[in-house]
Structure formats: structure tokens, C-alpha cells
Amino acid sequence: MDKNLESYLKVYHNFIDDETCDTTVAEMEQLGWRQHTFYNPTDGSYSDRSGNRELDVSYDKVSTREVLMKKVWDGLSRYLTDINFPWFNSWAGYSGIRFNKYSEDRVMAEHCDHIHSMFDGTMKGIPTMSFVGQLNDDFVGGEFVMWKDKVIEMHKGTVIVFPSVFLFPHRVDAVKSGTRYSFVSWAY
Q1: Which is deepest, 4, 68, 81, 106, by most CB within 10 Å?
Q2: Hey, is 82 helix, strand or coil?
């Protein structure tokens, strides 16, 4: 087992084809959006960490949903093959897709993916793997940053997978121009 945390962040370039990315982004313009908030499991409250600069999110569906959900499955499967742990070789399920929209000057505050609220209903468990897919690259800024200073190079069609634990804090820096579109899912 490799003790270097970076070994457990996997970046897969060109994982989603351009046509799927373009169709998804075009349809995302019509989704219902709301500002992202973080859940506090201690008191059950929701709050933003960046004021009105937090990104917008949507759980609405697009025509490419099934293709994207298959890509999530493929990415999680590839991740488990790549890390090759006999004691961690499957997952119970994974969440539906959440779309992310970062308009100019929008960010996602630094956090780790200890998501409680998503897994307290019909889905039971804890998030074990985080999956992030980048859908466009016609924007400036919006860098995905891990561990305070490690910029993860992402382009249209890139996906990343990493453990959903406190050792993998991450954020998205401010978009300087254009709009950054991505999506996320979590395995449990």
C-alpha cells in the first residue's frame, strides 16, 4: 500500500466524449439552479461558506443522464482496478448526479466530502469515493485545488476520483471569466 496520498487521486483525461459534454452543457442552461450550501450534521443546519460567491447546483435531469451515470460506474470501477486493494474492491451504490455551475467570481469553499444528508434516507452508508467530471473548458480560473496548493489539471471530458475522507480537502477557485460546468457523484 502506497502511503503517499496523491497516489489515491486518479485523473482520467478524455474520459467523457466531446459530444456528451457539449449536449450536457447546452441542456444545463435550462436547469433549475440554487446556491450551494454545506450541511452541518451536528445541528442539521445548512450554510454557505463563501457568502453569495458559492456555486450553483442542480439535481435536474438532462438527456445525457444515463450516459453520464454509466461513466460514473466506469470511473469508479477503473479507480478500484487502479488502486488494486483486495480489501476494498466494490461499492454498495452511488448517488445521482449533481450538476455544478460556477459563474464569474463563483467558488466552492474548501471542504471534504463527509456527506451525511445524502445518505440518511433510502441510501444508507458513508461516501467512500468522490467522482468529479469536467464538462467544458471555455472559461478562465475555476481551478480544482487539493491540499491547499495542488492544482489538478482538468479539461473538458476529464474526470477525477478520490477517497471521500478528511485527508482529501479540496476547493474550486474563483472563475475569472466564462462559466465552469461540472458534475459530481459519490459512491458508498
Answers
A1: 106
A2: helix
